[in-house]
Inverse folding.
């Protein structure tokens, strides 16, 4: 489905984020994630004991302020807060798993101002109305380049 600038500016409800069942499912998935990540990271270390493993989180998708910014993010404030909190919790789990596994962590999530609400020139993640060929609410080419540059910088600084 194509998204165009002509869509109404009214906030969009994301009803699943408000249900107790959805919230419980998210909580359960996030509670199980540290053990799954630990197992995965240990398997990687075991399979490649001499490799340098670097962990990166997903880029920040939603604005840290949890404020809608039509037309990029038209999600209602309460639903957006749910998504922002989820992103923060996921980031924390990934960062803690990397630390527990004693692996390098490159923080590409923390820089603020590059999310779906950012001006197109500063955006690392597209909004509901993508300004690039990236899919809505996914990293664009700039975001991927920034993440790659952060990774290369880390690898070069500690080689």
């Amino acid at each position: 489905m194509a998204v165009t600038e002509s869509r109404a500016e009214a906030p969009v409800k994301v009803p699943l984020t408000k249900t107790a069942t959805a919230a419980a499912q998210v909580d359960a998935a996030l509670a199980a994630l540290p053990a799954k990540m630990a197992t995965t990271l240990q398997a990687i270390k075991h399979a490649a004991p001499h490799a340098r493993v670097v962990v990166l989180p997903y880029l920040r998708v939603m604005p840290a302020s949890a404020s809608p910014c039509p037309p990029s993010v038209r999600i209602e404030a309460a639903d957006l807060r749910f998504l922002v909190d989820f992103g923060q919790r996921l980031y924390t789990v990934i960062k803690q798993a990397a630390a527990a596994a004693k692996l390098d962590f490159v923080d590409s999530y923390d820089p603020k101002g590059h999310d779906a609400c950012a001006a197109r020139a500063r955006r690392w993640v597209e909004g509901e109305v993508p300004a690039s060929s990236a899919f809505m609410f996914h990293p664009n080419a700039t975001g991927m380049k920034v993440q790659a540059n952060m990774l290369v910088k880390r690898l070069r600084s500690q080689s």
The domain at 15-157 is CATH 3.40.50.1110 (Rossmann fold). Residues 134 and 140 are 5 Å apart (CA to CA). Residues 1-8 have pLDDT under 50 and may be disordered.
